[in-house]
Design a protein that fits this description.
The complex is a heterodimer of chains A (120) and B (111). Chain A is an all-beta fold and 120 residues long. Chain A has strands at residues 3-6, 10-12, 18-25, 34-39, 45-52, 57-60, 69-73, 78-83, 92-98, 114-118. In chain A, a hairpin with a 4-residue loop joins β7 and β8. The N and C termini of chain A lie far apart (40 Å). The relative contact order of chain A is 0.31. Chain B has no helices and nine strands. In chain B, the strands form two sheets. In chain B, strands 1, 3, 4, 7, 8 and 9 form a six-stranded mixed sheet that branches. Chain B has a three-stranded antiparallel sheet with strand order 2-6-5, with no helix packed on it. In chain B, a hairpin with a 4-residue loop joins β7 and β8. The N and C termini of chain B lie far apart (35 Å). The chains are: A mainly beta (120), B mainly beta (111). Chain A binds chain B through residues 35, 37, 44-47, 49-50, 59, 61-62, 95, 97, 103-113, and chain B through 33-34, 36, 38, 40, 44-48, 51-52, 57, 87, 89, 91, 93, 97-105.
Chain lengths: 120, 111
């Protein structure tokens, strides 16, 4: 079974750094694009960017470029989303998900989501 | 800025049929790229409902049907059930964005 399992909820203060994870299993991790999707409180889904773990090629939504870093570790089948300096507006649920075929296609499966709360 | 436009809300009584529209442009649905649909319940991960504009993954009932024409797409849900109450999102690739674009989401209420 293809699965994406994300790290647990985080509570951080503004200005702190954070790295959340998404571990893939049940498939060849290096062969499929992984995307990160944000859902702010009461809002819809937003595509943040994608990474191809095979060569770490990364593409960002311009709205998130420079605000976050997407990376992957082939040795542990894990993708990451990180912030160097969190803001209160980063409070959201973050999902990782996979393109089953190529980056033009749908997303399936999805991780369970990681709630990030940024508050002083 | 590219957008996929969905109605904020739709509603219907049990057993009825509702449709949710997703209006795009020549840089996404009209490019043409396929449209995909997700069902999202609070506190859970989004669930793939329709892929490739009109295909259902295994396990999704045939009460759910997708269609696409030109720069728009639709999700039809027939035989409404109480547990269909959820948020529904369309998604497509967008040339301007260089990545995936989600619609704003539609809240389905089963009366």
């Amino acid at each position: 079974e293809v699965q994406l399992v994300q790290s647990g909820a985080e509570v951080k203060e503004p200005g702190e750094s954070l790295k959340i994870s998404c571990k893939g299993s049940g498939y060849t991790f290096t062969g499929y694009w992984i995307a990160w999707v944000r859902q702010m409180p009461g809002r819809g889904l937003e595509w943040m960017g994608i990474i191809y773990p095979g060569d770490s090629y990364t593409r960002y939504n311009p709205s998130f470029q420079g605000q976050v870093t997407i990376s992957a570790d082939k040795s542990t089948n894990t993708a990451y989303l990180q912030w160097s300096s969190l803001k209160a507006s980063d409070t959201a649920i973050y999902y990782c998900t996979r393109h089953p075929k190529n980056k033009y296609n749908w997303f399936d499966p999805w991780g369970q989501g990681t709630l990030v709360t940024v508050s002083s | 800025q590219s957008v996929l436009t969905q109605p904020p809300s739709v509603s219907g009584a049990p057993g009825q049929r509702v449709t949710i529209s997703c209006i795009g442009s020549s840089s996404n649905i009209g490019a043409p790229y396929d449209v995909h649909w997700y069902q999202h319940l609070p506190g859970t991960a989004p669930k793939l409902l329709i892929y490739g504009s009109n295909n259902r993954p295994s396990g999704v009932p045939d009460r759910f049907a997708g269609s696409k024409s030109g720069t728009s797409a639709s999700l039809a849900i027939s035989g409404l059930q109480a547990d269909d109450e959820a948020e529904y999102y369309c998604q497509s690739y967008d040339n301007n964005l260089g990545g995936s674009l989600f619609g704003g989401g539609t809240k389905l209420t089963v009366l």
